[in-house]
Design goal:
Number of domains: 2
Distance between the termini: 45 Å
Main location: cytoplasm
Largest sheet: 9 strands, mixed
Strand content: 15-25%
CATH topology of the largest domain: Rossmann fold
Pathway: Carbohydrate degradation; glycolysis; D-glyceraldehyde 3-phosphate and glycerone phosphate from D-glucose: step 3/4
EC number: 2.7.1.90
Oligomer: single chain
Keywords: Cytoplasm, Glycolysis, Kinase, Magnesium, Metal-binding, Transferase
CATH architecture of the largest domain: 3-Layer(aba) Sandwich
Structural class: alpha/beta
Pfam families: PFK
């Protein structure tokens, strides 16, 4: 053990994650119980046509059983997409799972994400390497990447690597796109008679990869607890100084799960939920008015301070801004040369002639700095890079203008902006994520042992104590639908957005019932740092979202 490791790191390396009962005696002591055939969430005929070999497979559940014989396994693992706490524990679960089959089993880590698999860049993971990363944050053991495996040429290169290493299975650890990639690759392998099965594992701090059987994606719990500690610190500062409004943008472009969970943990004065904004067809001016109303009301009470949480993807959910972004992308694609070299004001004047009158009005209403960000170099698909727009600064500037225009605002509005994103992606996993990820990895080793191609590892009942956790696997195709991507129909795993009404809407409804009170008062809660040792109710707690969704909290 290296001398430059912190005391905490050394202690965390020694932590032994807990396993569901069905996995405790090793991968060979597992019985596979198969359910009924499945179908995709929609577009069934099209998905079945695209996945003739792996469509319609049953959900499987693991049960503890007498040990059976097994041969050594040769497996590969890929980390795909953005980092999430607990990735190393998934690898540890896979490693320990295949070693429980045979000490001669081998695990290869492909370097830099899917491109490592495609180009045959890998390391062999041994005991020393694995032990150095147990319960550690980050993806730095083998790094990650965002390469998409989409072409037949790429697939054939992957086959060559799999054959060279004589792999029984490859596990792709990632989010919805990465697991879609795993399903496509597995389908192609099977169509070519390749023995290597491809499995997936649900990862994303955004929390938008979940359904009836995937209760949460790994990393979400740790990331939001990390952000909530920081938000709680800022709240205490705000309540101490009582002179600043803090606007905090939180990661999560496609869904507002992070912002909602952080609100449930900390009780801010304002939290915007992108899905609600879209459902109510709120225009930008409506959003600004809503925020300004809270600032105004608190100022009337002599409270010129507060905390507001803003989802990263908010702008794309605001209907009139979404239309503006779409029209700007189109206009810039056709008139790029005509605006090149112009200053922001001149660009705006030109662009207003090439977009609708409504979009021109929205564009003109924006602060100059935000206008400039909307016209930065476009991404590889020709679209405006929305992720570069400082939404929290936009709201601050427009709220300031709105309050000034009201004329009767007698308070003070001094605002500070923050963005919490990368701070949480590589945090040391909470006990929940350490256990959950290890279990997901171990479950993946069972899927691999049984040649279950096109499956994603699954662990359920996670709010009911580890003794009641249920491990198994899900056919990835059952989560798919067809979406339009870059001008073509593509099979993708359907994203899970924040539900405003329906079976998974309890977290939003809990928040909505309390936000008016939180707006007026300082109901702030201060979660503090993640705890690793102590009473289970302190160290092993799950997040509010999953407890509310699964009926474990009223």
């Amino acid at each position: 053990m290296s001398e430059n490791l912190s005391v905490l790191t050394k202690a965390r390396q020694a932590y032994q994650p807990k396993l569901p009962v069905s996995l405790k005696n090793g991968a060979l002591s597992v019985k596979i119980n198969k359910g009924a055939a499945t179908e995709s969430v929609s577009d069934q005929a099209k998905i079945k046509e695209l996945f003739p070999n792996t469509y319609g497979l049953p959900v499987v559940q693991f049960e503890a059983a007498e040990a059976k014989a097994g041969k050594a396994l040769r497996m590969g693992v890929v980390l795909s997409g953005g980092q999430a706490p607990g990735g190393h524990n998934v690898i540890a679960g896979i490693y320990d799972g295949i070693k429980s089959v045979s000490k001669d089993s081998v695990l290869f880590g492909f370097l830099g994400g899917p491109s490592g698999l495609e180009n045959g860049k890998y390391i062999e993971i041994d005991d020393a390497k694995m032990d150095a990363y147990r319960n550690a944050g980050g993806f730095d053991m083998i790094q990650s990447g965002r390469t998409k495996l989409e072409t037949e040429e790429q697939f054939n290169k992957c086959i060559a690597v799999a054959n060279k290493l004589d792999l029984d299975a490859i596990v792709i650890i990632g989010g919805d796109d990465s697991n879609t990639n795993a399903a496509v690759l597995g389908e192609y392998f099977q169509s070519k008679g390749v023995k290597t099965c491809v499995c997936g594992c649900p990862k994303t701090i955004d929390g938008d990869l979940k359904n009836e059987f995937i209760e949460t994606s790994f990393g979400f719990d740790t990331a939001v607890k990390t952000y909530s500690e920081l938000i709680g610190n800022i709240m205490r500062d705000a309540n101490s100084a009582q002179k600043y409004w803090h606007f905090i943008k939180l990661m999560g472009r496609s869904a507002s799960h992070i912002a909602l969970e952080a609100a449930l943990q900390t009780h801010p004065n304002i939290c915007l939920i992108s899905e609600e904004v879209k459902a109510k067809q709120m225009k930008l001016k409506d959003v600004i008015k809503q925020v300004a109303d809270v600032v105004y009301a608190r100022a009337a009470q002599g409270k010129n301070f507060g905390v507001a949480l803003i989802p990263e993807g908010l702008l794309e959910f605001i209907p009139d801004v979404g239309v503006l972004i779409s029209e700007l992308s189109e206009a810039l694609a056709h008139h790029e040369a005509e605006v090149e070299g112009l200053d922001t004001a001149a660009k705006v004047e030109k662009l207003c002639a090439w977009v609708s009158a409504e979009s021109a009005e929205v564009l003109k209403s924006l602060p100059a700095g935000i206008q400039a960000q909307l016209m930065l170099e476009r991404d590889s698909h020709g679209n405006v890079q929305v992720s570069l727009i400082e939404t929290e600064k936009l709201i601050i500037e427009m709220v300031k203008k709105e309050l000034k225009n009201r004329g009767d605002f007698k308070g003070k509005f001094s605002a500070l902006n923050h963005f919490f994103g990368y701070e949480g992606r590589c945090a040391a996993p909470s006990n929940f994520d350490a256990d959950y990820c290890y279990s997901l990895g171990f479950a993946a080793s069972v899927l691999a042992l049984n040649g279950m191609n096109g499956y994603m590892s699954s662990v359920r009942n996670v709010t009911k104590g580890i003794e009641n956790w249920v491990a198994g696997g899900l056919p990835i195709t059952m989560m798919m639908n067809i979406e339009r991507r870059h001008g073509a129909d593509k099979p993708v795993i359907r994203k899970a957005l924040v539900e405003l009404d329906g079976p998974m809407s309890a977290p939003f409804k809990y928040f909505a019932a309390r936000r008016d009170e939180w707006a007026k008062t300082e109901s702030y809660t201060y979660p503090g740092p993640i705890q690793y040792w102590g009473p289970s109710e302190v160290c092993d707690i799950t997040n509010f979202t999953i407890k509310l969704e699964r009926g474990a909290m009223k």
